[in-house]
Amino acid sequence: MKALALFSGGLDSLLAMKLIQETGVEVEAVFFLQPFIPPDREEQIIAHLQDLVGQLNIKLHVVRLADDYLRMLENPAHGYGRAFNPCLDCHIFFLRKAGALMEEIGASFLVTGEVVGQRPKSQYRAAFPIIDAETGLAGLIVRPLSAGLLPPTIPEEKGWISLAHCPSIQGRQRKIQLELARKYNLRYTPPAGGCLLTNVEYGRKVRDLLQADGALTVDSLRLLSTGRHFRLSPNYKGIIGRNRQENRELCRYFYQHRWDSNLYLLKGRGAPGPLTLGVGRPDSEAQKTLAHLTAHYGDHPKQVTVTVKVLSAGPDHRREEIAVFNDPTHLDLDKFRIT
Which of 78, 131, 156, 240 could form an SS bridge with 88, CB 3.0 to 4.6 Å? Predict the structure, then answer.
């Protein structure tokens, strides 16, 4: 018999897989790669996950989330949390995807590392029946870390597995998990920030993007992790690099999409400073404001005129220059700053 486990990369799901292995069931794992992860980090993340599941000799499936996931983010049935985190809808979405893969690989049930009361938006006792019903997988989702606190599942009722050896963990405490990790000699990565959608600043940028564009795309979401973001008009935003690496990323993005006539690359002349990516359809005032911001964040002297080069993408690849007076007292950053 085989089970499919949802693997987050954290200790809880690693332990859940180990506990199910101890019942004699073969376990495979699935990780859902969210579309806002920068491409240069994907290989590192996958290699790290492979290393973790390798401790248990488990096969890992990596599923890249795409447009159907973005449509769910735009309009989640259960709403958002404090940031742009539709945690309950995300969880239901992942389980539905896992359910389809479960049938594909011939697994009989799903396993998660959920703990009763650990996460206020998706891991509380009353949420589990909602999740199970909406996924169409009621009775087939096994949560071994809180097994003693939950009703028996179909695999238990049919005698496929016994969870008598499993704990009854609840709440946010980690003592039992850490003890189990030592018992099984498991390497793991401590939590480090979690899902980007729960980050308030990132969520603010996603909301702005959705309001301006009406839809989310993989490319636009990936840009949100780079630079300072400013909304210059309903149709135009600017992203200003904060360091050399971000300047490279903005430059790379511009040249990868150089046939898109709604992109602009700005750079102040005469002093070190950031590259700025303009995205959208600017009027002259919005473009001048973005040039002013570009000069402001450079090493140009204050109270002098700075020439900012502007390269327009699209079939014509136009070049122009904008002269701005670098006076920070006449620049209201908070008026334009998204985050």
Answer: 78
